[in-house]
């Protein structure tokens, strides 16, 4: 049986050997305290995935699960070199940027009668068809269009050959275990294997694989085939926004030399030491915030393990980063062009 390193153990190891990034335990505690009241609010919970985001599916159907699979297969690299020159998609008289531009393009295609979420379609899509579906409403195209074409064909082919073209089939095989679904995704879909070498050790982040499991849990509303009893075993999803918000909230710190490189807009490569430290420390920092949050509730005699986990903390912090873009503009995000996040 193939061994997949645990993202949480990887994060612990990276945080323990990191040079340019540090987790601030006091800062993490303060973030937990600031979230304390909000964590028991409805928006923080699972229902927020649909109620807060108009582009997410309303249904909990097999088609909705396929929508999640397609989107998370392409859920990477939306940042633009120049902030003012970026990929944008207009949908139902609203203009979307970043991750939401991907969702808007998918929904636009579905409205045009293009079965973009069907494996039988995206398994054999041509590059021109991908260019058409994800066309931009500015002169800036979606980044990594050739890579998106490749992962679409690859993932669609596997979904057809091994799971009858339906990601729900894969979910059913996981028998309500998030870790089993994570393993099935990693074993079968190579583009999801988000790993690196750090201090000669194989470490993992599995950002798209873990968010795929989390979004599947969310779209199925934690019920039926999506009632994962081990959903709390997932970590946050190490993208390029969570580190930014953790530094903004002073739960994580960068060295002067790293801050300088980030401010200059240095483009890092997947697996660079600084990139691995940023991603691993982000995961570790959020694990500490979760721990402190649960302890705060325990002191109040409330067992919130069903309501607080890294997934819901991640969604909250990611949405916070979106809503506080202006306030966070002095904190640079790290730039890597890759298919992992
Ligand atoms: N850690 C984490 N990373 C996330 C997401 C999402 C979308 N999930 C939302 C959908 C339903 C839920 O309610 C979530 O709110 C996208 N990303 C990553 O962000 C980056 C894009 O950023 P920007 O350029 O600002 O749009 C890119 O790496 C993308 O992969 C998340 O949830 N967590």
Automatic annotation (TrEMBL):
Annotated catalysed reactions: queuosine 5'-phosphate + H2O = queuine + D-ribose 5-phosphate
Record key words, sorted: Hydrolase
Domain of life, per lineage: Eukaryota
Top EC class, one word: hydrolase
GO terms assigned for molecular function: hydrolase activity
InterPro entries per UniProt: Q_salvage (IPR019438)
GO biological process: tRNA modification
Protein EC: 3.2.2.-
Function: Catalyzes the hydrolysis of queuosine 5'-phosphate, releasing the nucleobase queuine (q). Is required for salvage of queuine from exogenous queuosine (Q) that is imported and then converted to queuosine 5'-phosphate intracellularly.
Similarity comment text for this entry: Belongs to the QNG1 protein family.
UniProt protein name: Queuosine 5'-phosphate N-glycosylase/hydrolase
Organism from which the protein derives: Mycteria americana
